[in-house]
Amino acid sequence: MSTIEQSTKDAIGQDAEELLRLDGVKKYFGLRGVPFRKAAAVKAVDGVDLVVRRGETVGLVGESGSGKSTLARLATRLLDPTEGRVTISGQDVTTVRGRRLRPVRRKIQMVFQDPQASLNPRQSVGTILTTPFRAQGIRPSRAQLIELLHQVGLSEEHLERYPHEFSGGQRQRIGIARALAVRPGLLICDEPVSALDVSVQAQVLNLLADLRDELGLSYVLVAHDLAVVRQVADRLAVMYLGTIVEEGPAAEVYAAPAHPYTRALLSAVPVPDPGAARDRIVLTGDVPTPIDPPSGCPFRTRCYKVQDVCATVRPVLEPVAGGDHRAACYFPELSSPPTSERTP
Ligand SMILES: Nc1ncnc2c1ncn2[C@@H]1O[C@H](COP(=O)(O)OP(=O)(O)OP(=O)(O)O)[C@@H](O)[C@H]1O
Ligand code: SF4
Ligand SMILES: [Mg+2]
Questions:
Q1: Which domains are seen in the chain, by residue range?
Q2: What pLDDT digit, counting tens, does each position of 274-332 carry?
Q3: Of the candidates 182, 205, 313, 339, which lies 20 to 30 Å from 167 by C-alpha distance?
Q4: Where would I find the ABC transporter domain in this sequence (predicted)?
Q5: How does the average pLDDT of the chain come out, rounded?
């Protein structure tokens, strides 16, 4: 094996450095002030295990309300977990707070969904880009700020401008530059393109891919649009009602989704082969409330394969067909989904 092949394998193989590890992470939001529901809580994230290794792009997908943003905030320690452990580059940071979070912020940064809302309209781009340096006690040079702008396809003349003077795509580039300022190894991008026009989405995704190659970055890319994640993810994790129901190498999960929920989600995504379309699985019923999720399998109220056992104990992620493709289902699908000829 050549050195390049070996280093590529090491970069995203099982032995590559773990940049992020979540063990049994939960986040319950209390429902104070709701009559008769004193003990009730929104189980936004309900026991997630996830590992992100150096060089990987992990796509995190799921319907609205499945807990993706909450998980992103837990991973970046913007939220305290109710239970579980958060480990960043080998260091347990679950209870680290305040100034002691500074070194953590150098390793992991977040890009937010809505660049309009996440950039202070009263600050110039220069001030916005200076903030993460200052949080680390560093005074950046003008050259450093210009280099950041160049990295995201902007230029020196943008330094003195304000967010409202930019397009949505450019604003997101500023958000990415801000996240890159302190040279993190891992970016958690929460729906980084969903607030943008379709025509601009591809440009921002291409930028993220270029930065990954240039800077050796790893990403967790949160999206509800599977077609977006498909372009860039090495691994895929599928969330439903606060839990990960399937995860594995993206190509394997796309080709042969094992969990009925993933199968339903993917059946709605266009396939690259124009001659074939997957048989569409229509999800019926609403997503149950995370205040009172179903017993056993969280997906059982909408599942086309449900049986009695599914209401008993929650299934855990188990390997399907060997390797590190895993699904949390008592009756996983073990073959590729059927396709039907597209009618002209
Ligand atoms: N601060 C909070 N207090 C109470 N409930 C919350 C809070 N933040 C999130 N939730 C609830 O937690 C659940 C998960 O929310 P979250 O924003 O993580 O989902 P999401 O997958 O990111 O959804 P979307 O795709 O719409 O962004 C939802 O039911 C949401 O209403
Ligand atoms: S465990 Fe049962 S209800 Fe849950 S996804 Fe599998 S078959 Fe469906
Ligand atoms: Mg969200």
A1: 16-233 (3.40.50.300), 257-344 (no CATH)
A2: 555 567 787 877 889 999 999 999 999 999 999 999 999 999 999 997 789 999 999 99
A3: 182
A4: 20-266
A5: 88
Measured from the CB, is residue 257 less than 6 Å from ligand 2? no
CA distance 195 to 147: 26
Of 241, 334, 250, the residue nearest 44 (C-alpha): 241
Give the number of the atom of ligand 2 that is nearest the alpha carbon of residue 260. 5
The model's pLDDT over 259-281, given as tens digits with 9 standing for 90+, comes to 999 999 988 776 666 555 567 78
Q: Report residue 128 as tokens.
A: 């916005």
302 lines ligand 2 (CB under 6 A): no
Q: Is 336 within 8 Å of 278 (Cβ atoms)? A: no
Report residue 258 CA to chain centroid gap. Answer: 20
Q: Which ligand is nearest to the CA of 243?
A: 1
H/E run at residue 177: helix 168-180
Reading the block at residue 17, the tokens are: 């450095």
